[in-house]
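Example 3.2
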Amino acid sequence: MNRVFPLFPVLGIVLLLSGCGVTVDNLTPARVPQNPSGIYTITMQAEARGGAVRKSTLQGSIVIDGETLPMERNPIDPNIFDFDYVMPEDQSEAAYYFILNYNVLGGSKEKPKQVISSLYNFKLVNKYVIQMQVDRAPVGRPVTVLGRRFFRSDKIIVGGVEAETRFKSDNEVEFVVPPLPAGESYFVQLQTDGRRVPIGNFMIDLSLLKVAPKSITMAPGDTALLVFSVDFEAPAGGLAVRITTDVPSSVIMPEVIIPAGSRSVSVPIEGGNPGVGALFADVPGMKEVTIPISVIE
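Structure, written as tokens:
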């Protein structure tokens, strides 16, 4: 059960002096990777304005879980204060705010002042991506992603396109490089728990589409077979091959889709009106293939 403890009514009130005083900045990220020790460092930075502020009197405190606790001054930067928070086992987020006490010179005497920060919150992230095993591959190749606590519902997004994703274990998923234009780098994300976690950039290299035979000569009404093949198993939903021609009245053929899990497909082509030209076979991420065609009476 996640608990966010009620805080004192003073929350939301920030006392800042005009001209001189101290401002408070929170250096703690809103999402923190979960660690085995359950200890998380919350950090505050104080910025003094005006020469009247006695920096040596800065004292930081944190209000968290209903308690006001002292913060430790950072030994490297005296304007930074740290607090090691032990997260309860039944809690995955925490709300907190800072109190900063200090003195300012008023004539010959020092006057105590106080700054109360805004309310902050941080949440534990119990899943994080470590890396992709490779950062480039051609279309259709499987790529392994290592991480922590993957779910079967997780998806890999490449350049805004959902890739075929295969759950391997709690620490490993695999995605198939989707048919996107080659020679470009794409941002890869893990879609999980209703959000997207950045993984990194991935380069899609040029792949090959093979067509046999390499040319066709036929008579009107004759039928021949064209075989389209790739070096990998087609992803879920199949791999569509876009066919265009400069002699549309001479060619009659269906759409070309290599079925999911297959590496090739045979497609009948029928001769239409006499003509000489070519078929052009194209799959995103692959080099276009030109097949000369002649339909002769």
